[in-house]
Give the backbone structure.
Amino acid sequence: MTASSTSLSAPVARPSRRGTGTRTRPVADTARSSLRARDRSGYLFVAPFAVATGLFLLWPTVYGLWMSFTDQSLTATESSFIGIDNYVEAFSDPQVWTTLWHTVWFTVLSTVPLVVVALLMALLVHTGLPGQWVWRMSFFAPFLLTSAVVSSLASWLFQPEIGLLDVWLAKLGLGPVGWLTDENVAMFSIALVTVWWTVGFNFLLYLAALQGIPQQQYEAATIDGAGGWRRLFSITLPQMKTITGVIVVLQLLASLKVFDQIYLLTAGGPNGSTRPILEYVYDMGFTNYRLGYASAISYVFFALILVFTLVRLLPTKKEA
Amino acid sequence: MAVSESVSTMVAARRSTAQQTRAENRTLTKLTIGPSPWVRAGALAALVVVAALWLLPLAWGAVTSFKHEAEAALPASWWPSQGWTLDAYRQVLGNSELLGWMWNSLVVAVLVTALTVLISAMAAFAFSQTLFKGRSLLQFLTVASIMMPGQILIVPLFKQMQALGLVDTFAGIVLPQVVAPVMVFILKRFFDAIPAELLDAARIDGAGTWRLFWTIVLPLSRSILVAVAIFVFIGAWNNFLWPFIVTTDPQFMTLPVGLSTVKNAYGVQYAQNMASAMIAALPLLVVFMLFQRRIVQGVATTGMGGQ
């Protein structure tokens, strides 16, 4: 954990009212407590969470898998088992591959700047220059907006001719650009909006990591005559490797699930050129009423995410 | 007396922390980019430019929202020639269901936060400080379910909500959102660090498990609980996909969902669009300004999902 704050560190034992002197002993291995072993009421404490998880996570997972083998429709109550027909159809459905590609393309387009820009922002703020509060607020504020507000603001900026971006480009004698209407541009515009919207989160993760670097290292390097750039490349950046790995993985997983901003900005258009796979699932299920087929596509997508997650777990295990 | 004394101590403490922070920042500047005024000016200029770029969309939205509708659609000017007006806000607040949606969002976000924090903390406590049959299995399932992306469950979940009669109800919006295995994991790691002696001493004194949880574990963990709560609240307030799927009746829509339906209805009413965006953005921005430090810490602690 890279949090630098002291108030969020693990609680320190305070001497209890009756003075059992717990302060003198270090944190004990809780597993060895014999009294805990006798405390068997745990299942009551875990019950609400277990029930909620069972009902709203595990059951839909199983139910969805079952549904993917049926011809379930949104309106009908009855459905019949059709084996792997949905999967056969999904693998030969060009729209599945196209929308899957859009999702992957968006993930690539958004992840790189979302990591690089976040790191640059954090490095700039970590210089300790005055105005810390303002910088944090400006970079993180968009993250607090809901997707509907983000797309309202963005579609106003992207408005053809009268939007701020086209107006500015016109002053330079350029444009107009079909920000959301040109098939070759729309996905870049959406990635741009996404970077603006969510980079603040990665920025804060990087900032916390930077604050975790011991100052003595900088002091020692300064004494040894290392300049600012040298300190950046020899001390700061090498220590950002681990956190960068974590942020990249979290970002990839987040970007793969893109739906909101695309649905609200272009509804998958122009001409289906930005439609992500989650929107295809939504369209199949809730516009075409084909829940069985929509479930099958969900599971194809889930398999992709799962493979990705498991691959990423492998090196972690080796390290441990 | 005691109160005023403690207040003045607090004020003094806060002032000295501010001074300390400033001194720390100066040291940091020296250590990271060195004493050169040119490098400092360059870094500061870069910060100003990036911050201005990042605030631009919000600032432009705000300016537009205070314009007359007729002027809003004219090519961009930062200073309207017809003067500023609250017309767009009056229209939006008067005609639409915006305030109702905001209330729905508040109810949903508060319920989701309270329920999530409570059941996650209870489960984390059970995993961390008690033994019961099937504990390891449940713990394994919890960690495994972190990998489950909720987005792919929209189809079966909707069918399930239909069967339960929970479509277009608050329960239908809230309940699927309270399952947060990541939070259980984060809280468990925190509870693990509570010294066993402390709990054993309380047990010897005859405290039941519930008392142990309620009077020792929770108060000791206030900071992490606040961090988790903030995180869950922001997520629930802004959540779009699930509320969008499970509500069709405008009466039960949350702010993000309602807003997305209104956008089409207004068409080219740019000032009104921006006014509703500003109203929707305001609550969390104010919350952030008030609790910046806590939120920044909270994101750092919970954001990585306990990695």
Notes: Residues 112 and 177 of chain B are 7 Å apart (CA to CA). Chain B has two domains: 2-91, 95-302. The longest helix of chain B spans residues 98-129. Chain B is about 75% helix and 0% strand.
